UniProtKB/TrEMBL annotation:
Top-level taxon: Bacteria
Keyword Nucleotide-binding included in the entry's annotation: yes
GO molecular function (one): transmembrane transporter activity
Descriptive protein name: ABC transporter ATP-binding protein
Amino acid sequence: MIKTSGLTFQYDERDMVFNFPDISLGPSENLLILGKSGVGKTTFLHLLAGLLTPLEGKVEIEGISIHSLSNRKMDRFRGQNIGLVFQKNHAIQSLNVFENLQARLFFANKAISNTIISDLLEQLDIIDCQSKKVRELSEGQLQRLGIAMSVIHRPQLILADEPTSSLDDDNCEAVIQLLIDQATANNANLIVITHDGRIQPLFQNSLTL
Ligand SMILES: Nc1ncnc2c1ncn2[C@@H]1O[C@H](COP(=O)(O)OP(=O)(O)OP(=O)(O)O)[C@@H](O)[C@H]1O
């Protein structure tokens, strides 16, 4: 569950102040955040992930006010409870697909289960790539690995930044459906930011910044 109240943010004293709307999602609810380029979507997502500190207001995830945590506790909280899907893949190039997921579980301080990894790779249809190095993957396979890495540790909150901007309609819907399925399977919240209106019908809630 995630709830925000009165969130504002400013990059620098001379910059404009962003005022973000309050959001509140119950168990397993998802949200699409739309908005034109430059309106502050990524900034909002980074506040929700605890990567930026608000000027005012708070973000509560599973009842914890995340910006009141120390940096060390915040890093640990994020590693264990949040799954981030970025436009650019953050997998470790020198490891293969399977090893990347083992590493993700290690860094989240979760037990390393090869069965859970295999099951997820099966679900995402990249089991045949498990021994491939990251640089040997196609764009679509890389995107699936990105999703696998964001959900393998069963986070309570999945945050995705423009996951579909470079995809055709079929792949766009497939990627969003994968994220929704993973969130539902783990009883997690999913928040996606985009300027891609194609995916709006797949979401329970949406708001425009
Ligand atoms: N580190 C930064 N320092 C100063 N200004 C920044 C910084 N990052 C972003 N901004 C500015 O804040 C505004 C919002 O940026 P943000 O990336 O949140 O927008 P966005 O809605 O995600 O845009 P896009 O859809 O193009 O990715 C932009 O005007 C941007 O130039």
